Amino acid sequence: MGKTLRNSLKWLLSSLVISQAHAFYIPGWSVKSYKENEHIPLLVNKVYSDNTQLQYAYYDLPFVCPPTGKSHGPGLLSGQSISLNLGEVLRGDRIMTSDIDLTMGQDTGCQFLCNQEVTRRDLKRAKELVKEGYVVEWIVDNLPGATSFVTVDKTRKYYAAGFKLGFTDYSASTGRPRYFLNNHHTIVIRYRTAPGRAGEKGGKVVVGFEVYTKSVGPSVKRDNGCPADLHDVEDHFELHMPPNKTVEAQSKYAYSSYHPEVMEEGDDNDTITIPYSYSVYFREDESIEWGRRWDLYFVNSEEGSRIHWLAIVNSLIICGLLTGIVLMILAKTIRSDIKGYKEGSVEDGKLRTKRKTKSEKLGFGLLEKEGDGDKEADASSDDEALEDVTGWKLLHADVFRKPEYGYLLAPLVGSGMQFLFMAVGLIVLSAIGILNPSFRGGFISSAVGLFVFAGVFSGYFSARVYKTFDGKDFGVNALVTACLFPGLLFGLVFILNLFVWAQASSTAIPFGTLIAIVLLWLCIQVPLVYLGSWYGFTRTGAWEHPTKTASIPRQIPHQAWYAKNMQSILLAGLVPFAVIFIELLFVFQSLWQDKSGYYYMFGFLSVVSLILMLTIAEVTVVTIYVQLCAENYHWWWQSFLVGGGSAVWVFLYCVWYYFVNLHISGFVSSLLFFVYSFMACCVYGLLTGTVGFLTAYAFVRRIYGAIKAD
Fold it and tell me: If 84 and its partner were Cys, which of 41, 88, 183, 474 is the partner (CB 3.0–4.6 Å)?
């Protein structure tokens, strides 16, 4: 246990710094070249499926050839685990060296791998995985083994990461499904001359890794374990073992994979032998640049570029309309209100002259530390000045009244700033090419690193909002900020892990890793949040409001149905959701179906994210302005909830996508989908809610500062 914990802490701390430097990838950099007859390691990782969220380590499967431990060069043995970064562990990778021997430039027509003896239970397990459509991930030179396809017009070739574990066929006589295992793999390595000096010395680089599968039945004639004729194989390896029942029953179902359940059980000690073999071919391909070798994995995805541009145009139209509305409110309505108020005050002789303080000359008023009598005098003077006005201007003495449960709103705003910093960092790193498919696990590792170190911003903004709400103990607020939402996320992940552990899936986070994450959270993030809170509370202080708050709150009139809290949140949330609706389809397809093709979208996501933030800011301004015009000054929480309101629609979209587009089976896989979707929507809601809150505060402060300026 101690060794596991020490190892977990070692890679956890190093993965956030060292692994990012080693994994830095920009086309033309980090080129690995091989000389003629040099060994190339083939790594095996895991099996995964679009129909389930449970992944399994390849060598944990009981029906595949286990590693023999033979040497593949200095310090490299088959079955040896490859060190992983944090992101790789969290995404379920379990990479190990295989027994398959690849030597640069040397073709192998057929090589026998092993005869794996499996029991009836193991065979049933293989049948379940084939039925669920599992695919296998092997790795050569950091490229995943791919299935090759051509586009519809047959002008371009593209790759789909992974290759099928087996396939399903249907009996011509009964129409029932029969399941077959792919036990022969033809490996095609595409290479070209290495760029630069390495190429001048005869070095070659890998630009493609293709795997073609074949199912070879036990009746096929073999020579030293290999099929005599791989091009003409009619008998496939069916995942079926004859049941130990009567001869009559065996003959009745001899040509079908369907058998009554009682017959399928049989004796668990019964065994069957699965022969495995492989072929290797090296093909030179000068048409593919090493720096562009990942493009083949995204050629088919790029056909959706037109739809991406349609999504961007749709977002721009919505954002443009909102911009016009906001400009009309700011430039015409509010300016006219303020001008009319001042002119009316001058005509009535009610425009007060008062001594400007240093802070008011800068354009913003301070909450003056005066006695109650002075505050009441100021409030009565303000009421006299505004007795003939209506709408939002009447709320000058109540608009900055601290909200209920402000001690909870402040940590939420702080957590939202933390996620906002993380999201901006990820988009920037992806846009400049540091995060890319060759940096396996880099996206998750960088997200964790950015989230932890953004604790400083979280504490800073949380403390300033907390002090603005007259908070006294910044230490308690810092502790709540550091533990509230991260604690919720960790609790959900831990509960999910209990279910996934029971399935023996590699999706489960190792216990040592969980302990290391807790230490990372408590020993690094919490102190950073405390540091940011101390600075924001003691050095910077509260935000200064341009108007004073009256001692007696104003009565709020009856609100129209669309201005009520829940209705306004849902209605306002529809607009940002409409901005990202089309792009969500690509994001969900990449996350839940392709599982590897989201890197090509970052350029589009960057543009849509900027439009989304602008749209949320404008929607919040319009919504809060309507609320203030209805003489409702409870806008603090409302601005946060309106900004994050689209998260409700995104979660509803998740539910729709699950039932319409996905074919996930099993309770645990469905639980993973909905809990992960809920967590993602919470993060999205915090982020967008914080944007709405800060925008609304800037807007309210600006307009009420304008009417108080002399």
Answer: 88
Domain boundaries, position 144 = 2-19+37-299
Question: pLDDT (tens digit, 9 = 90+) per residue, 389-426?
Answer: 457 788 888 999 999 999 999 999 999 999 999 999 99
Q: How far apart are CA 575 and CA 563, in angstroms?
A: 16
> Do 392 and 520 fall into the same domain?
yes
Q: Structure tokens of 496?
A: 């999910």
**How many CB atoms are located within 10 Å of the residue 683 CB?**
20
Q: What is the DSSP letter of 591?
A: I
423 and 459 fall within a common domain: yes
Question: 120-163: per-residue pLDDT in tens?
Answer: 999 999 999 999 999 999 999 999 999 998 877 777 888 888 99
Could you tell me which of 558, 616, 76, 620 has the C-alpha nearest to residue 315?
Answer: 616
**pTM of the complete model:** 0.83
Judge whether 25 lies within some domain. no
CA–CA gap between residue 42 and residue 115 (Å, rounded):
20
Residues 6+ apart with CB under 8 A from 601: 301, 308, 583, 586, 587, 590
For residue 97, give the nearest of 10, 39, 16, 184 by alpha carbon.
Answer: 39
Query: How many Å apart are CA 251 and CA 260, to the nearest integer?
Result: 13
Counting runs of H as helices and runs of E as strands, what totals does the chain give? 22, 18
Judgement on whether residues 316 and 235 belong to the same structural domain of the protein? no
Best CA proximity match to 168, nearest among 51, 334, 21: 51
